Amino acid sequence: MTWLTVALVLVVAAAGLLRWRRPAWYWLAFGATLAALRVLVRYPSVMDACGLTVPPSRWRLALARATDWPVPGPRAPRILRLRPTRTGLVLRLKLRPGQDAFDVAASCDRLRHSFAMYGVTSRELRSGVVEVRMTGYDVLKRVQMPAKTDTRPMRVPVALREDGAVHYRDYRAVPHGLTLGATESGKSVYQRNLVAALAPQHVALVGIDCKQGVELFSMARRFSALADNPDNAAELLDALVAHMGDVYQLIRAEQRITADVPDAEIAANIWDLPEDLRPVPIVVLVDEVAELALFTNKEEERRRDRIITALVRLAQLGRAAGIYLEICGQRFGSELGKGITMLRAQLTGRTAHRVNDETSANMAFGDIAPDAVLAAIQIPAEMRGIAIAADSTGGWHRIRAPHTSLRQAVNTCNRHADLTPDLPALAPFRPALGGPKSVPGPAVESAPAAA
Ligand SMILES: Nc1ncnc2c1ncn2[C@@H]1O[C@H](COP(=O)(O)OP(=O)(O)OP(=O)(O)O)[C@@H](O)[C@H]1O
Question: The FtsK domain covers which part of the protein (predicted)?
Protein backbone atom coordinates (compact mmCIF):
# COMPACT_ATOMS: atom_id res chain seq x y z
CA MET A 1 0.00 0.00 0.00
CA THR A 2 2.85 2.35 0.92
CA TRP A 3 4.60 1.63 -2.39
CA LEU A 4 1.40 2.30 -4.27
CA THR A 5 1.00 5.64 -2.50
CA VAL A 6 4.63 6.57 -3.23
CA ALA A 7 4.22 5.63 -6.91
CA LEU A 8 1.02 7.67 -7.12
CA VAL A 9 2.68 10.71 -5.56
CA LEU A 10 5.62 10.37 -7.98
CA VAL A 11 3.31 10.15 -11.00
CA VAL A 12 1.30 13.19 -9.85
CA ALA A 13 4.51 15.15 -9.19
CA ALA A 14 5.93 14.17 -12.61
CA ALA A 15 2.67 15.19 -14.28
CA GLY A 16 2.69 18.54 -12.45
CA LEU A 17 6.31 19.17 -13.41
CA LEU A 18 5.72 18.27 -17.05
CA ARG A 19 2.62 20.43 -17.22
CA TRP A 20 4.59 23.37 -15.90
CA ARG A 21 7.84 22.96 -17.85
CA ARG A 22 6.97 20.82 -20.90
CA PRO A 23 3.27 21.15 -21.72
CA ALA A 24 3.69 19.28 -25.03
CA TRP A 25 5.08 16.21 -23.27
CA TYR A 26 2.47 16.47 -20.51
CA TRP A 27 -0.21 16.45 -23.16
CA LEU A 28 1.14 13.30 -24.80
CA ALA A 29 1.74 11.49 -21.49
CA PHE A 30 -1.35 12.42 -19.48
CA GLY A 31 -3.28 15.39 -20.85
CA ALA A 32 -4.82 13.75 -23.94
CA THR A 33 -6.32 10.81 -21.98
CA LEU A 34 -7.62 12.98 -19.14
CA ALA A 35 -9.09 15.54 -21.55
CA ALA A 36 -10.77 12.85 -23.69
CA LEU A 37 -12.37 11.34 -20.55
CA ARG A 38 -13.45 14.79 -19.36
CA VAL A 39 -15.07 15.60 -22.72
CA LEU A 40 -16.93 12.26 -22.87
CA VAL A 41 -18.19 12.47 -19.28
CA ARG A 42 -19.26 16.11 -19.42
CA TYR A 43 -20.49 16.10 -23.01
CA PRO A 44 -24.32 15.82 -22.49
CA SER A 45 -24.48 18.38 -19.68
CA VAL A 46 -22.07 20.84 -21.35
CA MET A 47 -23.94 20.72 -24.66
CA ASP A 48 -27.20 21.29 -22.82
CA ALA A 49 -25.75 24.22 -20.86
CA CYS A 50 -24.32 25.74 -24.07
CA GLY A 51 -27.72 25.56 -25.79
CA LEU A 52 -26.51 22.96 -28.27
CA THR A 53 -29.31 20.46 -27.74
CA VAL A 54 -32.69 19.99 -29.41
CA PRO A 55 -35.90 18.63 -27.78
CA PRO A 56 -36.58 14.91 -28.26
CA SER A 57 -38.46 13.98 -31.42
CA ARG A 58 -42.21 13.53 -31.29
CA TRP A 59 -42.10 9.80 -31.99
CA ARG A 60 -39.73 9.27 -29.04
CA LEU A 61 -42.09 11.20 -26.76
CA ALA A 62 -45.05 9.28 -28.10
CA LEU A 63 -43.20 5.99 -27.58
CA ALA A 64 -42.33 6.98 -24.01
CA ARG A 65 -45.95 7.89 -23.32
CA ALA A 66 -47.25 4.66 -24.83
CA THR A 67 -44.85 2.56 -22.79
CA ASP A 68 -43.39 2.80 -19.31
CA TRP A 69 -40.07 4.06 -20.61
CA PRO A 70 -38.62 7.23 -19.06
CA VAL A 71 -39.29 10.50 -20.91
CA PRO A 72 -36.28 11.16 -23.20
CA GLY A 73 -34.16 14.24 -22.51
CA PRO A 74 -32.87 16.86 -24.96
CA ARG A 75 -30.48 15.56 -27.63
CA ALA A 76 -26.96 16.86 -28.22
CA PRO A 77 -25.18 16.49 -31.60
CA ARG A 78 -24.03 12.91 -32.09
CA ILE A 79 -20.30 12.29 -31.60
CA LEU A 80 -19.02 10.71 -34.82
CA ARG A 81 -15.39 10.64 -33.74
CA LEU A 82 -13.13 11.81 -30.90
CA ARG A 83 -9.49 11.78 -31.96
CA PRO A 84 -6.56 12.83 -29.75
CA THR A 85 -3.80 14.67 -31.64
CA ARG A 86 -0.27 15.87 -30.81
CA THR A 87 -1.66 19.11 -29.44
CA GLY A 88 -5.32 18.55 -28.60
CA LEU A 89 -8.53 16.73 -29.46
CA VAL A 90 -10.60 16.68 -32.63
CA LEU A 91 -14.30 16.09 -32.15
CA ARG A 92 -16.48 15.37 -35.17
CA LEU A 93 -20.18 16.02 -34.59
CA LYS A 94 -23.33 15.19 -36.54
CA LEU A 95 -25.78 18.00 -36.01
CA ARG A 96 -29.41 17.33 -35.10
CA PRO A 97 -32.24 18.64 -37.29
CA GLY A 98 -32.64 22.38 -36.72
CA GLN A 99 -29.03 22.97 -35.67
CA ASP A 100 -26.41 24.68 -37.81
CA ALA A 101 -22.64 25.08 -37.80
CA PHE A 102 -22.96 28.68 -36.64
CA ASP A 103 -24.53 27.50 -33.33
CA VAL A 104 -21.38 25.48 -32.59
CA ALA A 105 -19.03 28.27 -33.75
CA ALA A 106 -20.84 30.76 -31.48
CA SER A 107 -20.39 28.43 -28.49
CA CYS A 108 -16.66 27.77 -28.94
CA ASP A 109 -15.63 29.98 -26.06
CA ARG A 110 -18.16 28.37 -23.72
CA LEU A 111 -16.99 24.90 -24.78
CA ARG A 112 -13.41 25.96 -24.09
CA HIS A 113 -14.24 26.85 -20.48
CA SER A 114 -16.55 23.90 -19.91
CA PHE A 115 -14.08 21.29 -21.19
CA ALA A 116 -11.09 23.10 -19.57
CA MET A 117 -9.20 23.30 -22.87
CA TYR A 118 -6.81 26.03 -24.01
CA GLY A 119 -8.57 26.83 -27.28
CA VAL A 120 -11.58 25.64 -29.27
CA THR A 121 -12.44 26.34 -32.92
CA SER A 122 -14.98 24.77 -35.22
CA ARG A 123 -15.61 24.43 -38.93
CA GLU A 124 -18.23 22.81 -41.10
CA LEU A 125 -16.87 19.78 -42.93
CA ARG A 126 -20.02 19.09 -44.95
CA SER A 127 -23.71 19.67 -44.56
CA GLY A 128 -24.65 18.65 -41.01
CA VAL A 129 -21.13 17.61 -39.94
CA VAL A 130 -18.96 19.93 -37.84
CA GLU A 131 -15.39 19.47 -36.68
CA VAL A 132 -14.48 20.96 -33.30
CA ARG A 133 -10.71 21.31 -32.81
CA MET A 134 -9.53 21.75 -29.22
CA THR A 135 -6.00 22.52 -28.12
CA GLY A 136 -4.78 21.31 -24.74
CA TYR A 137 -2.13 24.00 -24.20
CA ASP A 138 -0.71 27.15 -25.81
CA VAL A 139 0.96 25.60 -28.86
CA LEU A 140 2.28 28.95 -30.05
CA LYS A 141 4.31 29.60 -26.88
CA ARG A 142 7.09 27.29 -27.98
CA VAL A 143 6.51 26.25 -31.56
CA GLN A 144 7.36 22.64 -32.37
CA MET A 145 6.52 21.61 -35.91
CA PRO A 146 5.41 17.99 -36.33
CA ALA A 147 8.05 15.66 -37.77
CA LYS A 148 5.73 14.64 -40.60
CA THR A 149 3.99 17.27 -42.70
CA ASP A 150 1.97 17.14 -45.89
CA THR A 151 4.64 18.81 -48.04
CA ARG A 152 4.07 18.82 -51.80
CA PRO A 153 5.71 20.63 -54.71
CA MET A 154 5.23 24.36 -54.10
CA ARG A 155 3.37 23.72 -50.82
CA VAL A 156 5.56 24.08 -47.76
CA PRO A 157 4.94 24.09 -43.99
CA VAL A 158 5.96 27.45 -42.59
CA ALA A 159 4.29 27.91 -39.19
CA LEU A 160 1.96 26.39 -36.61
CA ARG A 161 -1.65 27.52 -36.23
CA GLU A 162 -3.14 28.12 -32.80
CA ASP A 163 -5.44 25.13 -33.25
CA GLY A 164 -2.33 22.94 -33.58
CA ALA A 165 -2.63 22.45 -37.35
CA VAL A 166 0.28 23.21 -39.67
CA HIS A 167 0.11 26.41 -41.68
CA TYR A 168 1.24 25.82 -45.27
CA ARG A 169 2.28 28.32 -47.89
CA ASP A 170 0.73 26.85 -51.02
CA TYR A 171 1.94 28.78 -54.06
CA ARG A 172 -0.27 26.98 -56.55
CA ALA A 173 -3.43 27.77 -54.55
CA VAL A 174 -2.44 31.32 -53.52
CA PRO A 175 0.32 32.47 -55.89
CA HIS A 176 1.38 35.78 -54.37
CA GLY A 177 1.83 36.78 -50.72
CA LEU A 178 2.28 39.93 -48.66
CA THR A 179 3.83 39.84 -45.17
CA LEU A 180 3.52 42.99 -43.07
CA GLY A 181 4.63 43.86 -39.55
CA ALA A 182 6.26 46.52 -37.42
CA THR A 183 9.99 46.44 -36.90
CA GLU A 184 11.12 43.51 -34.68
CA SER A 185 7.78 41.76 -35.11
CA GLY A 186 9.14 38.59 -36.74
CA LYS A 187 8.92 39.14 -40.51
CA SER A 188 12.50 38.08 -41.23
CA VAL A 189 12.18 34.90 -39.15
CA TYR A 190 8.98 34.05 -41.05
CA GLN A 191 10.69 34.66 -44.40
CA ARG A 192 13.69 32.61 -43.24
CA ASN A 193 11.39 29.67 -42.51
CA LEU A 194 9.91 30.03 -45.95
CA VAL A 195 13.34 29.95 -47.62
CA ALA A 196 14.43 26.95 -45.51
CA ALA A 197 11.21 25.09 -46.38
CA LEU A 198 11.55 25.85 -50.11
CA ALA A 199 15.28 25.03 -50.23
CA PRO A 200 14.84 21.22 -50.67
CA GLN A 201 12.26 21.74 -53.44
CA HIS A 202 12.70 22.02 -57.20
CA VAL A 203 12.31 25.79 -57.29
CA ALA A 204 14.47 28.79 -58.15
CA LEU A 205 14.72 31.38 -55.40
CA VAL A 206 15.22 35.02 -56.35
CA GLY A 207 15.82 37.63 -53.66
CA ILE A 208 15.58 41.40 -53.45
CA ASP A 209 16.88 42.52 -50.07
CA CYS A 210 17.02 46.28 -49.70
CA LYS A 211 18.45 45.95 -46.15
CA GLN A 212 21.80 45.91 -47.99
CA GLY A 213 21.37 42.15 -48.33
CA VAL A 214 21.89 41.36 -44.62
CA GLU A 215 19.04 38.87 -44.49
CA LEU A 216 19.02 37.01 -47.81
CA PHE A 217 22.64 37.25 -48.99
CA SER A 218 23.94 34.85 -46.35
CA MET A 219 21.66 32.19 -47.89
CA ALA A 220 23.07 33.00 -51.35
CA ARG A 221 24.09 29.43 -52.21
CA ARG A 222 20.46 28.45 -52.65
CA PHE A 223 19.51 31.64 -54.58
CA SER A 224 19.60 31.82 -58.38
CA ALA A 225 19.62 35.64 -58.38
CA LEU A 226 19.94 38.37 -55.76
CA ALA A 227 19.73 42.17 -55.69
CA ASP A 228 20.59 44.35 -52.71
CA ASN A 229 19.67 47.85 -53.92
CA PRO A 230 16.86 49.46 -55.93
CA ASP A 231 19.01 49.87 -59.08
CA ASN A 232 19.85 46.16 -59.23
CA ALA A 233 16.28 45.31 -58.25
CA ALA A 234 14.88 47.28 -61.22
CA GLU A 235 17.11 45.37 -63.64
CA LEU A 236 16.43 42.02 -62.00
CA LEU A 237 12.66 42.57 -62.18
CA ASP A 238 12.92 43.55 -65.87
CA ALA A 239 14.85 40.32 -66.49
CA LEU A 240 12.10 38.36 -64.69
CA VAL A 241 9.43 40.01 -66.86
CA ALA A 242 11.42 39.04 -69.96
CA HIS A 243 11.76 35.46 -68.62
CA MET A 244 7.98 35.41 -68.07
CA GLY A 245 7.52 36.36 -71.74
CA ASP A 246 9.75 33.45 -72.79
CA VAL A 247 7.72 31.03 -70.67
CA TYR A 248 4.49 32.25 -72.26
CA GLN A 249 6.04 31.69 -75.70
CA LEU A 250 6.97 28.16 -74.66
CA ILE A 251 3.38 27.46 -73.52
CA ARG A 252 2.06 28.81 -76.83
CA ALA A 253 4.49 26.67 -78.83
CA GLU A 254 3.31 23.59 -76.91
CA GLN A 255 -0.32 24.60 -77.49
CA ARG A 256 0.31 24.77 -81.24
CA ILE A 257 1.57 21.17 -81.14
CA THR A 258 -1.20 19.75 -78.98
CA ALA A 259 -4.02 21.70 -80.71
CA ASP A 260 -3.95 19.25 -83.63
CA VAL A 261 -3.89 16.14 -81.43
CA PRO A 262 -7.43 15.07 -80.56
CA ASP A 263 -8.00 14.44 -76.81
CA ALA A 264 -4.59 15.92 -75.88
CA GLU A 265 -4.55 18.29 -72.89
CA ILE A 266 -3.96 21.90 -73.91
CA ALA A 267 -1.47 23.56 -71.57
CA ALA A 268 -2.59 26.83 -69.97
CA ASN A 269 0.25 27.13 -67.46
CA ILE A 270 3.62 25.54 -66.71
CA TRP A 271 2.04 22.77 -64.63
CA ASP A 272 0.16 21.49 -67.69
CA LEU A 273 3.41 21.13 -69.65
CA PRO A 274 5.19 17.76 -69.86
CA GLU A 275 7.78 17.46 -67.08
CA ASP A 276 10.73 17.46 -69.46
CA LEU A 277 9.61 20.79 -70.92
CA ARG A 278 8.44 22.49 -67.75
CA PRO A 279 10.45 25.55 -66.72
CA VAL A 280 11.47 25.67 -63.09
CA PRO A 281 9.02 27.65 -60.91
CA ILE A 282 10.44 30.81 -59.35
CA VAL A 283 9.68 32.36 -55.96
CA VAL A 284 10.68 36.03 -55.79
CA LEU A 285 11.27 37.19 -52.21
CA VAL A 286 11.27 40.95 -51.65
CA ASP A 287 12.36 42.22 -48.22
CA GLU A 288 11.55 45.80 -47.08
CA VAL A 289 9.49 46.57 -50.18
CA ALA A 290 8.97 50.24 -49.20
CA GLU A 291 12.66 50.90 -50.01
CA LEU A 292 11.84 50.14 -53.65
CA ALA A 293 9.04 52.69 -53.68
CA LEU A 294 10.87 55.65 -52.10
CA PHE A 295 12.49 58.38 -54.21
CA THR A 296 14.10 61.78 -53.71
CA ASN A 297 14.60 62.99 -57.30
CA LYS A 298 13.17 62.58 -60.79
CA GLU A 299 15.55 59.81 -61.77
CA GLU A 300 14.72 57.77 -58.67
CA GLU A 301 11.05 58.38 -59.34
CA ARG A 302 11.42 56.90 -62.84
CA ARG A 303 13.22 53.89 -61.33
CA ARG A 304 10.46 53.47 -58.75
CA ASP A 305 7.78 53.50 -61.47
CA ARG A 306 9.76 50.92 -63.43
CA ILE A 307 10.02 48.65 -60.36
CA ILE A 308 6.35 48.90 -59.39
CA THR A 309 5.24 48.35 -63.00
CA ALA A 310 7.39 45.20 -63.24
CA LEU A 311 6.04 43.91 -59.91
CA VAL A 312 2.43 44.56 -61.01
CA ARG A 313 3.06 42.71 -64.29
CA LEU A 314 4.62 39.76 -62.47
CA ALA A 315 1.70 39.69 -60.00
CA GLN A 316 -0.89 39.85 -62.77
CA LEU A 317 0.66 37.40 -65.21
CA GLY A 318 3.24 35.43 -63.22
CA ARG A 319 1.04 32.60 -61.95
CA ALA A 320 0.70 30.75 -65.26
CA ALA A 321 4.44 31.18 -65.90
CA GLY A 322 5.23 29.75 -62.43
CA ILE A 323 6.54 33.04 -61.00
CA TYR A 324 5.34 33.72 -57.48
CA LEU A 325 5.85 36.88 -55.42
CA GLU A 326 6.50 36.93 -51.68
CA ILE A 327 6.62 40.56 -50.61
CA CYS A 328 7.59 41.69 -47.12
CA GLY A 329 7.54 45.11 -45.49
CA GLN A 330 6.47 47.27 -42.57
CA ARG A 331 3.68 49.07 -44.40
CA PHE A 332 2.26 48.69 -47.88
CA GLY A 333 -0.36 51.32 -48.54
CA SER A 334 -1.30 54.07 -50.96
CA GLU A 335 1.15 56.49 -49.26
CA LEU A 336 3.87 54.62 -51.18
CA GLY A 337 2.50 56.07 -54.41
CA LYS A 338 0.65 54.99 -57.50
CA GLY A 339 0.41 51.33 -58.40
CA ILE A 340 0.75 50.08 -54.80
CA THR A 341 -2.92 49.34 -54.14
CA MET A 342 -3.16 47.69 -57.57
CA LEU A 343 -0.19 45.49 -56.67
CA ARG A 344 -1.58 44.75 -53.18
CA ALA A 345 -4.88 43.56 -54.68
CA GLN A 346 -2.94 40.79 -56.45
CA LEU A 347 -1.12 39.68 -53.29
CA THR A 348 -3.94 37.63 -51.81
CA GLY A 349 -1.98 35.52 -49.31
CA ARG A 350 -1.70 37.96 -46.41
CA THR A 351 0.27 37.61 -43.19
CA ALA A 352 0.44 40.40 -40.61
CA HIS A 353 2.75 40.31 -37.62
CA ARG A 354 2.35 42.87 -34.81
CA VAL A 355 1.47 46.23 -36.35
CA ASN A 356 1.70 49.68 -34.77
CA ASP A 357 -1.69 51.02 -35.80
CA GLU A 358 -5.06 50.10 -37.24
CA THR A 359 -4.17 51.59 -40.64
CA SER A 360 -1.35 49.07 -41.07
CA ALA A 361 -3.69 46.21 -40.08
CA ASN A 362 -6.20 47.51 -42.63
CA MET A 363 -3.49 47.48 -45.29
CA ALA A 364 -3.09 43.76 -44.63
CA PHE A 365 -6.69 42.65 -44.25
CA GLY A 366 -9.14 45.54 -44.82
CA ASP A 367 -9.91 44.40 -48.37
CA ILE A 368 -9.93 40.60 -47.96
CA ALA A 369 -10.67 39.61 -44.33
CA PRO A 370 -12.02 42.54 -42.28
CA ASP A 371 -12.50 40.25 -39.22
CA ALA A 372 -8.74 39.73 -39.08
CA VAL A 373 -7.99 43.45 -38.62
CA LEU A 374 -8.85 43.42 -34.90
CA ALA A 375 -6.92 40.20 -34.35
CA ALA A 376 -3.81 41.76 -35.93
CA ILE A 377 -4.03 44.84 -33.71
CA GLN A 378 -4.34 42.65 -30.61
CA ILE A 379 -1.04 40.78 -31.12
CA PRO A 380 0.97 41.46 -27.94
CA ALA A 381 4.35 43.14 -28.42
CA GLU A 382 6.16 40.57 -26.26
CA MET A 383 5.00 37.63 -28.39
CA ARG A 384 7.32 38.17 -31.34
CA GLY A 385 6.65 35.99 -34.34
CA ILE A 386 2.90 35.74 -33.70
CA ALA A 387 1.01 36.65 -36.85
CA ILE A 388 -2.42 36.53 -38.44
CA ALA A 389 -2.61 34.72 -41.76
CA ALA A 390 -5.56 35.18 -44.10
CA ASP A 391 -6.44 34.80 -47.74
CA SER A 392 -9.18 35.97 -50.06
CA THR A 393 -11.63 33.33 -48.73
CA GLY A 394 -12.10 35.61 -45.69
CA GLY A 395 -10.85 32.97 -43.21
CA TRP A 396 -7.92 33.72 -40.92
CA HIS A 397 -5.71 32.03 -38.28
CA ARG A 398 -3.23 33.03 -35.59
CA ILE A 399 0.09 31.48 -36.49
CA ARG A 400 3.70 31.46 -35.33
CA ALA A 401 6.73 30.25 -37.23
CA PRO A 402 9.39 28.21 -35.39
CA HIS A 403 12.26 30.34 -34.14
CA THR A 404 14.72 29.41 -36.91
CA SER A 405 18.04 31.18 -36.53
CA LEU A 406 19.86 32.60 -39.53
CA ARG A 407 22.57 29.96 -38.94
CA GLN A 408 20.02 27.13 -39.23
CA ALA A 409 18.50 28.63 -42.39
CA VAL A 410 21.95 29.14 -43.96
CA ASN A 411 22.88 25.52 -43.12
CA THR A 412 19.71 24.28 -44.83
CA CYS A 413 20.42 26.44 -47.90
CA ASN A 414 24.03 25.23 -48.08
CA ARG A 415 22.90 21.62 -47.74
CA HIS A 416 20.63 22.04 -50.76
CA ALA A 417 22.93 24.31 -52.80
CA ASP A 418 23.18 21.65 -55.53
CA LEU A 419 19.45 22.11 -56.22
CA THR A 420 19.93 25.77 -57.18
CA PRO A 421 18.84 26.11 -60.80
CA ASP A 422 20.97 28.18 -63.13
CA LEU A 423 18.67 30.56 -64.98
CA PRO A 424 20.65 32.15 -67.83
CA ALA A 425 18.08 34.96 -68.10
CA LEU A 426 19.07 35.99 -64.56
CA ALA A 427 22.78 35.21 -64.90
CA PRO A 428 24.00 38.79 -64.23
CA PHE A 429 22.32 38.65 -60.82
CA ARG A 430 23.75 35.30 -59.76
CA PRO A 431 25.30 35.71 -56.31
CA ALA A 432 29.10 35.64 -56.33
CA LEU A 433 29.42 33.74 -53.01
CA GLY A 434 30.09 30.13 -54.02
CA GLY A 435 27.63 30.51 -56.91
CA PRO A 436 24.83 28.11 -57.63
CA LYS A 437 25.69 24.94 -59.44
CA SER A 438 24.40 24.66 -62.96
CA VAL A 439 21.44 22.36 -63.55
CA PRO A 440 21.06 21.72 -67.28
CA GLY A 441 17.57 22.24 -68.59
CA PRO A 442 15.74 22.46 -71.85
CA ALA A 443 12.84 24.87 -71.87
CA VAL A 444 13.51 28.56 -71.39
CA GLU A 445 16.97 27.54 -70.34
CA SER A 446 15.82 26.32 -66.94
CA ALA A 447 16.07 23.11 -64.93
CA PRO A 448 13.88 20.10 -65.65
CA ALA A 449 11.25 19.25 -63.09
CA ALA A 450 12.54 16.87 -60.48
CA ALA A 451 10.14 17.44 -57.60
N1 LIG B 1 8.62 32.92 -34.52
C2 LIG B 1 9.36 33.46 -33.55
N3 LIG B 1 9.50 32.84 -32.35
C4 LIG B 1 10.23 33.38 -31.37
N5 LIG B 1 10.89 34.56 -31.47
C6 LIG B 1 10.78 35.24 -32.62
C7 LIG B 1 10.03 34.72 -33.72
N8 LIG B 1 10.11 35.60 -34.73
C9 LIG B 1 10.89 36.60 -34.30
N10 LIG B 1 11.30 36.39 -33.03
C11 LIG B 1 12.16 37.27 -32.24
O12 LIG B 1 11.96 38.60 -32.65
C13 LIG B 1 13.18 39.19 -33.09
C14 LIG B 1 12.90 40.06 -34.31
O15 LIG B 1 12.51 39.24 -35.37
P16 LIG B 1 12.76 39.66 -36.89
O17 LIG B 1 14.15 40.06 -37.11
O18 LIG B 1 12.21 38.56 -37.73
O19 LIG B 1 11.82 40.95 -36.98
P20 LIG B 1 11.55 41.86 -38.23
O21 LIG B 1 10.09 42.12 -38.25
O22 LIG B 1 12.15 41.28 -39.46
O23 LIG B 1 12.31 43.18 -37.82
P24 LIG B 1 12.92 44.30 -38.80
O25 LIG B 1 11.76 44.84 -39.59
O26 LIG B 1 13.47 45.31 -37.85
O27 LIG B 1 13.95 43.63 -39.64
C28 LIG B 1 14.11 38.00 -33.40
O29 LIG B 1 15.43 38.28 -33.13
C30 LIG B 1 13.60 36.92 -32.50
O31 LIG B 1 14.30 36.95 -31.27
Answer: 163-362
